[in-house]
Queue: 2 jobs
Job 1
Amino acid sequence: MEHATPLIATLVGGLGLAFILGAIANRCRMSPIVGYLLAGVAVGPFTPGYVADQSLANQLAEIGVILLMFGVGMHFSVRDLLSVRAIALPGAIFQIAVATLLGVLLGHLLGWSLGAGIIFGLALSVASTVVLLRALEERGLVTSERGRIAIGWLIVEDLAMVLVLVLLPVLGDWLGPGDGGATPDARAIALAIGITFAKVAGFVVLILVVGRRVIPWVLHSVAQQRELFRLAVLAIALGVAFGAAKLFGVSFALGAFFAGIVLGESQMSHRAAEDTLPLREAFAVLFFVAVGMLFDPSIVLREPVALLGALFIVLVGKSVAAFVIVLLFRHPIGVAMTIAASLAQIGEFSFILIGLGMSMGILPEQGRDLVLATAMISIILNPFAFGLSRRVEPHIESQWKKRRRGGTADAAIPPTPLENHDVLVGYGRVGSIVAAALRNDGAPFIVIESDSDRVTELRDRGFVLLEGNAVSVETLRTAGIARASRLVIAIPNCFEAGRIVEQARGINPGITIIARAHSDAEVRHLQELGADTVIMGERQIALEMLSALGVTVRPESS
Ligand code: AMP
């Protein structure tokens, strides 16, 4: 009986154990992914006890990859990427280059071929979206400037890896294990790349031209029925991925990614994303379990030095590269530290890459085990990297400022001569209304705004303004916070607002601070940090609605 149901046994064993170990990992304040990977190790062939069906697990994992890539495509936003392209594009490319070079170097020391080193280095270069998004969400950083840069950066990394997945099979012969003396035939490679790109282009054109019309139409026609709608989304994701692979020779992953992009553009993308989330998550868990099954834990004892080398690349090499390039692009230290910390881990793309490298016979098993061990350890250490970056941020920032002041004076903008003025942070939906009213009032004030488009608008309207991020002490000082009488923080991100409140209160204990929040918890948080008045947007909406209804609000019910 048991042998007749290997699929059920694999599903139950994988999901059940993943749940238990994931919950334990969560309790220990680690990413549940660590638990899923360990569950895979436990049901894998390298540990005693039950061994799940490896080939079935691999197929389930493949569905997991399709759904993961579908999700990545659905959340891919050209607009978000464009808004941070100036730093995300060069940053991600530089970081990938540094990590790949270091990977090739380590591979060389381990006696691998160049191809193996390249795949290894690429696998170490790309961070996990799942881990990053969760880390940013936990810290309320998703909508902050540093959060948006980190996400844009990751999108560039993902896109680069999608390209690598397309090119690897084509370059396989050249990168292969026998590359020692073989001279690559440049023409054959160019031809193969050309054919592959033609196929990919054919697929992309078909999905963007035909898919863009057909997919929204299909979804629209079943939108009234929940079950059929969900089924349609899944059928599209899996069908496009499968069709892309069979008809165009494009990888499942790429097919799913584009299906996701087309769906993400449609008006029903939110619903499609939400409705398919449970299934996507379940298969993503199976993907991590299947990856864990491949892991031979004895690598830690067999290859401690090589493992330390790989860890060094992910934790130190990548972080330093990211840190340096963010600073070179003149972003504040805090942003550089968050980016460095958030990307100092590897995950799903690395597993997909090494899977391909292994199946093509390029990457030795040792490489796979090293990547898996590095992924587990770097994911476990990621929260500590974040903690460390937050703790050392103020120290490094003050050191940096001192040095900069001692050096060239070009960066310093003279502080505003205003006194007893108001400082307004953010010129968006809230800030623009406040600014217009303050101007009518005739009170002197200065606006701090970080977005260059908004800055242009402010300039056109003749406001006194300071371009920059108000989280930086330097910016606050330049806005004359020490002599200001009131500070209005009209930005939506509570994490950044909290930092601004803290810094401003430190510089000017007597200043009146008015801030904006979206929940009671945020109100309390900002008050604890020193805000005098915190306006909760949603509460004000409710009060306005009641006033439109003509209902008077008694004090105890408000
Ligand atoms: P809204 O979300 O429409 O209220 O807009 C908020 C505005 O605040 C946007 O124009 C942002 O560019 C700006 N903003 C957000 N965070 C900061 C910050 N830390 N420093 C300066 N401006 C900011």
Note: Residues 425-431, 448-451, 454, 469-471, 491-493, 496 surround adenosine monophosphate (CB under 6 Å).
Job 2
Amino acid sequence: NRTFAIIKPDAVKNNYVDKIYNHILDNGFEILSAKLIKMSKYQAEQFYIIHNDKPFYEELTSFMSSGRCMVLALKKENAVENWRKVIGSTNPNDAEEGTIRKLYANSLGENAVHGSDSNKNAVKEISFFFTESELI
Ligand code: CMP
């Protein structure tokens, strides 16, 4: 299975990319593709369109377009579920010890990483940033 991950602007800015890569590899994920990008505000709005009725939509899309982030397509058995375990709860205060968000996240809004919440969304999210031929 595949999942989609983002190393968010806070984690890139704080130089956590290599540490987060180690979590990815140590947990047995294969990186099918990765790239450093800076989302436009429009791109962030489209990516998070399912949240457009939420009070945090503006804050979320401004933050996600505020700096460089790394987008990744990951492969592993039960990739979606396994990646969500590795990253921990959305709110770092609730995240288990040893998870990426517990270790590297600042707050609910600036929470270091993203992970798809279902296989269907993983497919959608990967294709938002990658063409099939980029997944090696
Ligand atoms: P992510 O997994 O990228 O999916 C949606 C994001 O919205 C989530 O991580 C959080 O960073 C963000 N988010 C969720 N709830 C809130 C909130 N109450 N305030 C600010 N951001 C939020």
Note: Strands lie at 2-7, 30-38, 68-75, 113-115.
